[in-house]
């Protein structure tokens, strides 16, 4: 069963208008499946998976091979395994002219694949695919199922809970013991300990020095490891929002594990009951909201706001010259604290949204709406960025 993805039409449009379209996102989030679905409507296309030895061998003489495929859309999966292709791709697209020559898929961010931004400037457009967004699968599952298993297709689509848990545990091990081997200077054992520590600190501000001391490594090592986890889409780093209020702000970054199912696996939580009773449950809900917002509004910027005196709001979204304050409440009967109201006064947003797991949305007071995750994208479009 193929499930339509929110970004599918954007990728198809990019292929028709740019020489090179890059789809990035974490491993196993559905990039290959999505690419093959789009290619069904492009008869003159080929697919190369650089993790398959036979496909890797085809591009041993890449210039010759690509030249024989000049009139095809050439899809290259796991491009980060052969970054020396980028200068050649630049040269060929300049020679061929027009659009729709290459569709490249990668499990590393644009910043991590530096060669592409240097070699293909002006010729490439980037699209980021996330694990499933709630609006892509809300007709199939309850929100509790989504929280428990996360959005990775091989986790959430499994009919057996034990198999889903096992898949996520294997994903973590494979990522640490195989996938990260292409990035130099890291220890898989230290990375696992850091990742588990970040799961316990999920959604909280972090002090690199304290983490480094706990793990017996340098602060620079922790920074490098966190940059690598961020660059491979395993965590989200949220920076503080700097307002003009003159208040003393908390300036340490907040870090979220980027998928609730992976968080559960790192914490040893097997089902929703265990998750809902864990201290990080509210932070997991924040992560769910953030991941979906980033999936819907890919060009928006996201921050958090917190002062030393206790004023705080989970996220500040900046998009199209609009400021939207977003508070996440894992409750069907949400309320705002004094600290929330103080933050709203400091930020002076165009609108404030309280996101809950409820199925309905309503107005709390002027300028403040309670919204369901299902309706969040539409509410922002209708009320906040008109």
Index terms:
single chain; 386 residues; alpha/beta; 9-stranded mixed β-sheet; 18 helices; 19% strand
In short:
This protein has helices spanning 8-17, 31-39, 53-58, 62-68, 85-96, 114-119, 134-137, 143-149, 153-156, 161-177, 188-200, 208-215, 219-231, 260-267, 272-276, 281-296, 338-347, 373-384; strands at 20-24, 45-49, 73-77, 102-106, 124-128, 204-205, 235-240, 254-257, 301-306, 312-319, 322-328, 351-356, 362-365, 368-372. With 386 residues, it is an alpha/beta fold.
Structure overview:
- With 386 residues, the protein is α/β, with parallel strands linked by helices.
- Helices cover 43% and strands 19% of the residues.
- It is built from 18 helices and 14 strands.
- The strands form two sheets. It has a nine-stranded mixed beta sheet with strand order 6-8-7-9-10-11-12-14-13, with helices on both faces. A five-stranded parallel beta sheet has the order 2-3-4-1-5.
- β11, α17 and β12 form a beta-alpha-beta unit.
- The model has no long low-confidence stretch (mean pLDDT 92).
Structural class: alpha/beta
> How much β-strand is present in the residues?
15-25%
What does the radius of gyration come to?
Answer: 22 Å
* First-residue to last-residue Cα separation: 36 Å
Q: Provide the residue-averaged pLDDT.
A: 92
Low-confidence stretches: none
What is the share of helical residues? 40-55%
Number of helices: 18
Strand order of the largest sheet: 6-8-7-9-10-11-12-14-13
Shape: globular
Main sheet summary: 9 strands, mixed
Count all strands and give the number.
14
